[in-house]
Amino acid sequence: MIRIAIVDDEKQYADELAEFISRFSKETGVAVEYETFGDGASFIDEYDPRFDIVLMDIAMPHLNGMDAAKLLRQKDKAVCLIFITTLSNYAIKGYEVDALDFVVKPATYELIKIKLEKAITSLKKCELSYVIASPTEMKRVALADISYIESNKHYLYFHTSGGEIKMRSTMKEIAEYFTANGFAFVSGSLLVNLPHVDYFKGNEISVKGEILPIARTCKTEFLQRLSAYVGGGRA
After folding, report:
1. Does 102 share its domain with 133?
2. Are 188 and 74 members of one domain?
3. Which uninterrupted H or E stretch holds 36?
4. Please, which residues bridge with residue 73 across strands?
5. Do residues 198 and 115 both lie within one domain?
6. What CATH number corresponds to the domain at position 50?
7. What is the pLDDT of residues 198-231, one digit of tens each?
C-alpha cells in the first residue's frame, strides 16, 4: 500500500491530483491511499510519518511549501517529496529539502504517472523501515537499526541503535512483516534481527553483545533461518 499526502490550498488542483492518483492505481494495480490538506501549516501540525509520498504545492498562504518542507524534514527524512507548483524558479531549490522532483502546474495525468512511478521506484530502493508509535510520538526507524524486539504483556520494546522504544502492540500484529524482512523468533516474546546476531552457542545467542535465550520450540527454525542468512539465502 502506497500512502500519499496532497498538500495544496487550491481545491481545483487538489481534486485533480486525487483523480490522477485514483486513475494511476486502477491502471497499474498499485494499491494507493491518499489524504488532502488545504495548507502547509495544518499538514505539518497533524503530521505523523505514515506517508510514503508527499505532493506539495509551494505557493500557499500562512506557511509556503518550501518552509513546510523544511519542517517536514525535521519529522520525516525518508518520505518522498514532490513539489507541484506554478513557481518553477523556486522548485529548483528543492535540493535544500531533498525533494525527489517537481511538476509545474497545470499538470497532466501522463506527467503525474511518470513522477509517481519514479517515486515508487525510489521507495523500493530505500532502506526498509517501520513506524513505531510510542506513547509520546511516532517515529520511522530503519529495520537495520533494530537489533531485536521484545514483547511483555500488551507492549513491544524495540531495541534500536538510538535506544529502547516502547509501543502498545503484540508480536502477532507485527510478526509477518518482520519475519519477511530478516527477523526470526528465538522465543515467543523475542524477535531478533539476523544481521545483528554475533554468535550462537548452546541455548543462547549474542545480539549486539547482549545474551538472549533460545526457546526449545524455536531453536530448529531459528537455526535454519540463521544458516540461510549466513549462507546468503533468504532467511
Report:
1. no
2. no
3. strand 32-37
4. none
5. no
6. 3.40.50.2300
7. 988 889 999 988 999 999 999 999 999 998 887 6
